[in-house]
Design a protein that fits this description.
By secondary structure, this protein is mainly alpha-helical. It contains nine helices and no strands.
């Protein structure tokens, strides 16, 4: 009996490392994901949270309401900003984050300046948001080329029809070119290998955290 007890004790001790060595991720769907480390970093800091089912959904597109929450937490935004969106009544889950981030996230000017918090955030809107935050936080001044030179440079870099189709006289088109140029110049959000920027595509939750991490570690 003594030998059996000793043998059992040895086996139990030997098994301890196998039980405790593997530390599970906070979310069941990020194990082995290319952005797992960054996701866990910002989860541990309280910047992001997952869904009630235990998922993070790293490859889902970021909603505009989610963008408000993530940038508020990531950049510790604390100054309340007055805003008046016709589609916001204060009951939205992201309202308390929008109070601090409204100045940075572009609204839909062509739709009565609505916010549309449940819509996917466009890449160009995310680029503008992060550019404005970085320029303010770091007190940056960027020397901009002339509007014509911005247009020429963007068209020489990106092949999107979005850039060649619009009239530069329109304010929204000028804004599109301006923030595409700044995004490329400041290495905020870059284009795709196919030569397109895809300004009106979405950006995934994992991609957003990666860009934020790069900005915070410049």
């Amino acid at each position: 009996m003594k030998r059996i007890s000793i043998l059992l004790a040895i086996l139990l001790v030997a098994n301890i490392p196998f039980c405790s060595a593997a530390k599970p991720s906070a979310f069941f769907d990020i194990r082995g994901h290319w952005a797992e480390e960054i996701i866990m970093k910002y989860y541990s800091e309280g910047t992001i949270s997952g869904y009630p089912d235990g998922a993070f959904r790293p490859d889902d597109p970021v909603k505009r309401g989610e963008l408000a929450k993530i940038i508020t937490n990531a950049f510790d935004l604390k100054e309340e900003i007055p805003f008046d969106y016709p589609d916001i009544d204060g009951t939205e889950w992201f309202y308390d984050y929008l109070k601090y981030s409204a100045n940075y996230i572009p609204s839909y000017q062509y739709l009565e300046y609505s916010f549309f918090g449940n819509n996917n955030a466009h890449r160009i809107d995310v680029a503008e948001t992060l550019i404005e935050i970085r320029m303010q936080n770091e007190d940056l001044t960027i020397e901009m080329p002339s509007p014509d030179n911005i247009v020429a440079e963007v068209l020489s870099i990106f092949e999107d029809i979005d850039y060649s189709a619009g009239k530069i006289e329109y304010p929204n088109v000028q804004r599109l070119f301006k923030y595409t140029w700044l995004s490329n110049e400041m290495n905020i959000i870059e284009g795709y290998p196919d030569g397109n920027f895809h300004p009106y595509w979405g950006i995934t939750r994992a991609e957003l955290l990666t860009v934020i991490d790069r900005i915070k570690n410049y």
